[in-house]
Amino acid sequence: MPLKHAKTKKWTCILAVLFTLHTVSTVGLMYNQSYFMYGIDLGIVVLFAILIYKMLIVKDSYAINLEQEILNHQETYAELEANRIKLQNIFDSIDVAIWSHNLKTNKLLITSGIEKLYGYPLQAFYEDAELWKKVIHPDDDEIIMNRGIAIQNGQITTSEYRIMKPNGEIRWIQDRGIPFLDADNELVDFNSILIDITERKRAEITIEHMAYYDELTGLPNRNGFMQMIEKQIKEADLQNRNLALMYVNLDRFNVLNDTLGHSFGDLLLQKVAELLKVTVGYYGTVFRRSGDEFLILLNFKEISEIKQKAEQIIQAFTKPFKLSGQEVFTTPSIGISTYPGNGSDSETLLKRADSALYQAKEKGRNTYQFFTEQRDSKMERRLTLEHGLRKALTNNEFFLVYQPLVHIGNKKILGVEALLRWKKEDEGMISPAEFIPIAEETGMILPIGEWVLREACLQGLSWREQGFSDLLISVNISVRQLLEESFIERIESILSETEFPPTSLELEITESTTMQNMEEALPILNALRAKGIRISVDDFGTGYSSLTYLRHLPVDTLKIDKMFIDDILTDSKAGAIVKTIIDMGHNLDFSVIAEGIETGEQINFLVEQGCIYGQGYNLYKPLHADELQRQLHKNVVMS
């Protein structure tokens, strides 16, 4: 437009000059009618005509250019409008809403997807910009408060909270807020992306419930117990309170179960669970540990309170249980340990309550016993084993066996798990289930674990030199080893000393103990993973894993615990759990290994569910190094 005005001004000036000259020449002719003056006047008229002609041409050219420019603008507008409609259609077709608020101009833009998420009309949010906050579940107010603080500080924040729709339905929303601050760090613009994550949350809650609650009785299970007792111990320390742990076992339950059938046994366990909950009341919490074993956590001031509650439980069992019209009698044996008197951690309290239960059984059952170290034969056994462990390394009493990790389809050996065995000098073979917990509690697991790792790497190197370079060596690591300050340096030293490649080493960590120490364990696991060492979660399904933790763990492999594999053919719920773990593992890009496979039917079930790796006696039992070497020549393609 400035160019147009400049040209108009130029033509106006020229016309004014010519008009002035023409007027002068006309006046001159009036006084002097010479040919010269006629010539000048005629020239001016000709110039005037030429100028008029050029002006008409320029005008037509400008009109043509203007018309073309208008046409271009129309095409651009049409294209922008088409893109806007396309983008709007995309937003309308997905369960996502976008909220944009310019705080300086107070201009608000909301996509129509918010209607589907919240159940309110779009206009309602324009009329009341606080409506989104008013429908948030009261229990999530703290989440919104913390979110608001982060937004004011300019932090991009992702929050998950519940909303209440007009029909009373509660939905979960994931809200990613993106703030913009000005030069004075004042919030001037805010954008938010809202997504409905209700189905994901429901799946997480279902998995959480499966992990922490017993399906048969509805009581918290052993995982729920471990979670609760750790919390109770911390609270007892802060409030200077005492805790009692009751270990309840039903007398001769196996006889009843075998005589009346498993369905009657399940009904009895359900009735027992109800009876214990009613008897304990608000004084404590009841858990089902496994089978016919129950745990009860109680707060107390005086020991007499615990005695009274134990007697009430025994008295409650004097009445028969009515199962499908039939009366059934059973009695409880109860072992009791106390905190802090009998131990400072959950594992010790559980073991000592178990020891007291053993004493109650010895006293004729249907009674209760407090833990007493003087009469505890198990404690004597423990001291004997502890003393033996301290000499076992020096006396070369330890050795390793190797259980193959197999591709189920073709039975090819892909790796081996190194398993520790102890042949005690004056007693013979000692079960790992008996001596390994003692080694962990006493700290002996540190030198023993270092010996295991070195021996496994040396053996692995020997097999590599024979051509089995793709063979994976897996070694179990206790949480006490993992959290040792120099653990990473020890691993590096052993790998350097044995010249065993880190990419062929896999460290197995147990799920429950690792999850209890997640903050300390995570950086160590990340450092190991960065060195190429594989990480495996052993006994998966028996611990504390949540999807949030599992998503952050640098894990390569999940190993499904044997307790689930045992029941996959007889218990539909066990089969469903195994299938869920397999699907979850694959979705998270983990390898999934089934442990404890003992039958061909179990293999068929696992293959149908997509699990292709396994361990167990049906495939291979743990083998000595020379026995395994013979199998490797048969079942591994040498490099």
UniProtKB/TrEMBL annotation:
Keywords: Coiled coil, Membrane, Transmembrane, Transmembrane helix. Gene3D superfamilies: 2.10.70.100, 3.30.70.270, EAL domain, PAS domain. Pfam families: EAL, GGDEF, PAS_3. Residues 382-636 form the EAL domain. It comes from the Bacteria. CDD domains: EAL, GGDEF, PAS. Residues 157-209 form the PAC domain. The chain crosses the membrane at residues 36-56. Residues 63-90 form a coiled coil. Residues 241-373 form the GGDEF domain. InterPro entries: Biofilm_reg_signaling, EAL_dom, EAL_sf, GGDEF_dom, Nucleotide_cyclase, PAC, PAS, PAS-assoc_C. NCBIfam families: GGDEF, sensory_box. This is EAL domain-containing protein. The lineage of its organism: Bacteria, Bacillati, Bacillota, Bacilli, Bacillales.
